[in-house]
Amino acid sequence: MNDKLKELADLMFPNVTKTIADYEKMYPERNLKEGARVTRFAPSPTGFVHMGSLLSAYEDYKAAKDTDGIFYLRIEDTDQKRSVENGISGILNDLKNFDIVPDEGMIGETESIGEYGPYIQSERQEIYHTFAKDLVLRGLAYPCFCTSHELDETREIQELNKERIGYYGSFAKCRSLTVDEAIQKIKNGEEFVVRLKSPGNFNNKIMLHDEVRGDIEFPENDLDIVLIKSTDKLPTYHFAHLVDDHLMHTTHVMRGEEWIASFPIHDQLFEIFGFAKPKYCHLGLVMKIDENGTRRKLSKRKDPEASVEFYHQQGVPIEAVKLYLLTIANSNFEEWLDNNPNTDTSEFKLDFKKMSASGSLFDVSKLFNISKNYLSRQTATTIYNNLLKWALEFDQEFATILKNNQEFAIKVFNIERENPKPRKDYLSYSDIKNHVWYMFDEYFHDLTYDFQKVNTKEEITNILTTYLNNYLDLSDKDIWFNKIKEMCDTLGYASNMKDYKKNPENYKGNVADVSTVLRVALTTKTNTPDLYEIMNLLGEDKIKERFTKCLNNLD
């Protein structure tokens, strides 16, 4: 070992007592079956998960679960300015709301599970320093004392001369310092960052086999990148990524396409240390079509639908969100779902080759349509239980009404549900009240009636009073409808639609117009589920009460 390099390394990292080998013993290979993937979701502790992040987390989670592997949560807080109070809890809650629970890693602000921690990068400083010290001892890293002003000057020169931007070659001023000069500067108290002494040649080519995009060729890295920062002595993303993914034995790094350009740096770091490289999957961005028709990245600042909390508040079922995420994760998922409508989606295997390299278009309308279809297939009891859970958090008044009317509410939700083509009214749990409020007396006040075609007070009164006095019969659906048709004949309305279409001038209207009067008087709405089922649920006394209320409203 070079004595001078050891002196330099000891000066730079006086508290490092372990070696890389020590840590590799502490974090041995995982005991998993062949082919099992180890993936990670590694956000900054911002307390916020947006849809792009949720998609990435879900893809990581599913990629691991498909192979009986491990999915872990690592918090990348080396950029301390991005950290917020309770930021980890916010992320965990957002993931939990969508059933994405890490096998290991952080489970709270300070709590974690697993044998490969710490899972917060700022708590791993000693580990990073050990790896950086190893590079200094091998002459592959050095202290850089350049000030921000000097770096700005270098950039200006590069821009003026149309050179590549960066710290490399002749522009890497501190690279040429002797070890003695570097030692003296440190002893003088000068601040420094730790830089890689890149062995690369920009004219050489390297190849990335991306699991999503195939083979991509790059120039070899020759930048002397920063490994350890000067202020807080924490690593940069590039260096932390190497150390953590090596010791945690990550097999697949799934990340946004914005990191493709960093691959030559990461590849070089793995080469320098002689570590096995993970497989890389660079995922396309989640895009949105703007009002002017242009595609742009989904923005948590501009787009409320970018926040996963938006869907939690709206009461979109987590299963529906996951179904939508799978449709944009894999191009073959919708076809699989059509062929396996009753199969649990855990049976669908994520295929990296079916992921979009060009970015996924986020369509909130399609998500709500999936939610509508999903809700239509749930039992009334399931709807009730999940709606109550949502309402307890977001609509206490409705929750109280649901709890006080459980049996009745379940029957309401079951209208036109248990048949081959169930109604698809509900977009989300927050939307259900809009469709059923009129069934609950607590909401049946301050009413506005819109009778549409039959709209005179006299004719509405005639229809309602005649029906109440002579034709109200709920004993059987056929009997009920025949009674309405009998009334139509009595009052001058066509009981048969074919007759009406042939000679509309012979009638005041038709059976549909009469039914609309009954429907509006009972619910205030012209479009509802099956009128007989509504009437049967409300019962004769409630029907009489509501018709009377409507007649009084006409006055």
Average pLDDT works out at 94
Q: Give me the number of helical elements.
A: 22
- Helix/sheet category: alpha/beta
What Rg is obtained from the alpha carbons, in whole angstroms? 34 Å
Q: Looking across the biggest beta sheet, what order are the strands in?
A: 1-2-3-4
Q: CATH-wise, what's the superfamily of the domain at 4-16 and 125-234?
A: Glutamyl-tRNA Synthetase, Domain 3
Give the CATH topology of the domain at 4-16 and 125-234. Glutamyl-tRNA Synthetase, domain 3
Number of strands: 14
**Largest sheet, described in full?**
4 strands, mixed
Tell me what the CATH architecture of the domain at 4-16 and 125-234 is. Answer: Alpha-Beta Complex
Anisotropy-based shape: elongated
Distance between the termini: 102 Å
Give the quaternary arrangement of the chains: single chain
Can you tell me about this structure?
By secondary structure, this protein is an alpha/beta fold. Among the domains are: 4-16 and 125-234, Glutamyl-tRNA Synthetase, Domain 3 (Glutamyl-tRNA Synthetase, domain 3, Alpha-Beta Complex), CATH 3.90.800; 289-376, Glutamyl-trna Synthetase, Domain 2 (Glutamyl-tRNA Synthetase, domain 2), CATH 1.10.1160; 380-436, no CATH class; 457-554, Orthogonal Bundle (Arc Repressor Mutant, subunit A), CATH 1.10.10.350. It has 22 helices and 14 strands. Strands 1-2-3-4 form a 4-stranded mixed β-sheet. Strands 5-6-9 form a 3-stranded antiparallel β-sheet. β12 (286-289) and β13 form a beta hairpin. α1 runs antiparallel to α5. The protein is elongated. The N and C termini lie far apart (102 Å).
